[in-house]
Please model this.
Amino acid sequence: MAREVVSVTDAMRTMPSSRSFTDAPIDDKTLYRILDSARFAPSGGNRQPWTVLVVRDLEVRAQIAELAQQGWNEYVAYIRDGLVPFGADEHGRWPGPLVDLDAAAATHSPNALVDGIVSAPALLVVLADLTKLAVLDAGLDRQSIVGGGSVYPFAHNIMLAARSEGLGGVMTTFLCRREAQARSLLGFPEQVGIASMIALGEPVEAITRLKRRPVEEFAQIDRWGGEPFTV
Ligand SMILES: Cc1cc2nc3c(=O)[nH]c(=O)nc-3n(C[C@H](O)[C@H](O)[C@H](O)COP(=O)(O)O)c2cc1C
Model:
């Protein structure tokens, strides 16, 4: 069946996180095209710190799924306690674990996406070379935002390019919770970190309206708390 091709604006407005896929494969030419468009993402100093692992080996995928599951279990423990997982305190700082992470990791929480990692039509691990990231907020006494800015536009471009091919996917970060084990498994060096794991495929579910805040709710004139920007 021919896949729907959409404009960039439509892709931005109609790209939910798809976590279940049909078993239609993504051929290498399509995946190549997706990466070939995504690579035009901006990055600090145009250093393009990313490496993408196209994970085909099913045994490796199964091990990734095990690690991701542990990350998910930890995430769920925070959600259960009504907390933003690994979020900052009121000073913007990492307060350390607010849940018992060992107990959390050992408590299985079902996750259809994790269960589908082995069978996902495409599985990408997006890595970033930390020596290439200009982290202008380094040393500020709060959680860093800037470093990721040199790799997430690229990761998001992968999602947009996939959407424009009529595919769907989800950007995830739960593998980051087991970065050391993933490093041994995938062989990336110490100066390289995981930005995301992205699963792609033909979504099972139809696209529904995305829930996002309207412009007036997040755009303010001149200063924090200023008049909402509207037209
Ligand atoms: C940086 C980032 C990390 C994310 N991590 C995960 C994740 O680990 N697992 C997951 O299922 N979804 C993850 N998501 C997807 C979000 O949950 C999703 O974008 C959000 O809930 C909005 O849902 P929607 O896109 O379907 O409207 C992540 C998204 C971003 C941008």
